[in-house]
Amino acid sequence: MLGNTKNETNIKLPFSFILFSLPCLIGSMALILFQGDSIINSQFRVPAIWSAAHLFILGWALMTAMGAMYQLVPVAFLTPIWNERFGFIQFAVTAFGILFFAHSLFHNPESALVPGLITLTGILMFLLQMFMTLRKQAKPNVLTLFVGTALFSLLTAILLGIIMVFSMKTGFISDYYQAVFKSHILLGTAGWFTLLIFGFSYKMVPMFSLSHGYSMKPAKYVFTFYAAGLSAAVISFFTEKNSLLTIALMFLAGGFAFFTWHMLQILKRRVKKKLDYSFRFALLAIPAGLAIHLGAFLCSLTGSFESTIGYLAFAYLLLWVALSIMGYLFKIIPFLWWTWKYSKEIGKRNVPSLKEMMNDKASIPVLSAFILGILSMTVSIANEHMVMFLSGQILTVGASLVFCYLIISVIKK
Amino acid sequence: MNPEELVLSNLKRVMDPELNINVVDLGLIYDIDFSGDGKAVITMTLTTPGCPLHDSIISGVKYCIEDLKQFSAVEVNLVWEPAWTPARMTPEANQLLRG
């Protein structure tokens, strides 16, 4: 019986991804600091901003998500990682590709095809790894649907990104460039990150709150609404039908609202009354994400979507995606290090609890400063206010630096 | 102390590091059985099927029984049915979690 429970991944694999991602977070935030003029004027299509955006999304958020998945997929789906050695090679290829890609976007975007293809190779290797791992799952469930669709969205987003670079170089399908660009952004953010966070929230929220006896039936409606919204939005980009985009945004907001309601139902059934502070920040990202979804729908309804999407997308990435990841990392990193250092000692001697591995209370000032910085930057973009942008971004860079320090300091425990 | 009490007492050394409560007070131990050849068979569960501490807790349980000279071998059966519920916790564990 004991033999088939060995699902733990070699801890060096998720750690490699997460440690690599930390300088990418600081680098991307620092790059944005010097692009205030362009950002407050909603000029996002600037090489330095492309570079910062990809360093942030691919270098930090994607690499962190991959690292977390190498750890969480085996335990959440009760199946070991298909091939760990392949995982280390995938890490090396992806890390090299992302750094090369961000560098090319900054200096010469037209030469970004080769590094883009290397990054694509790394991501395809990751997708193969996950496909081979998930297909071994004995009983697929609704989580498989969320995570599987998130992985499919990631694949599509990356392929669309490569088509964009190819189109810039050769003029291939240039008539559809805008539709491809919008689909790339949508599937890379809402399709990949949101569905992934939804999926793992269904595992992590009950686990960290010790909730029991709740129904999982609403998860099907969350998925149906959100997936319908994503599909309709992509169709609206290619058909250029604004009314369809409004309907799509309504479905996306509806799916997110269902998810928020479902999370509340789960939390109502919790045994652990006092939740960890960092976990509360991960939960706080949910109403933030809902507000942004509702905002996008209302803007589309009033015809102001095109002029507001820049800062809505900015707030979406940072207040929903980044805040969720940061909140959960406060829980995941101590667990990873604890497993590495104390897993074999449990029962043999006194071992520290996970709470003793990281200062949970430190998440209050750090993540509050991060939120405040992002809010102030979002408002500054809306009001084209440079001083507010700079003070907000300095706060965000500072919070990111302390966040990275706290993550690394776990290794000393 | 009878063998079951001895095993339970030793298993209290295995703490769930997330909750900081031992596996006995959490109600994770379903059954303890002893075969004639000195083997202890533990049937247990975890608070959730996707618990990331899966392997660590089970190896801790195994070690704690192997540590007892009275038993020549140990087998740990991890089961998900019946599923764990908070009702299985001792009042002390309940108090700790509910504050």
TrEMBL record, chain A:
Top-level taxon of origin: Bacteria
Residues passing through the membrane, by range: 12-36, 48-73, 85-106, 112-131, 143-167, 179-200, 221-238, 244-267, 279-303, 309-340, 361-382, 388-408
InterPro entries, alphabetized: Cyt_c_oxase-like_su1_sf
Coiled coil: none
Protein source organism: Cytobacillus firmus (Bacillus firmus)
Keywords tagged on the record: Membrane, Transmembrane, Transmembrane helix
Protein name: Uncharacterized protein
Keyword DNA damage tagged: no
UniProtKB/TrEMBL annotation, chain B:
Residue span, MIP18 family-like domain: 6-77
UniProt superkingdom: Bacteria
Any single Pfam family the record assigns to this protein: FeS_assembly_P
InterPro entries: Fe-S_Maturation_MIP18, FSCA_dom_sf, MIP18-like
Protein name: Metal-sulfur cluster biosynthetic enzyme
UniProt lineage: Bacteria, Bacillati, Bacillota, Bacilli, Bacillales
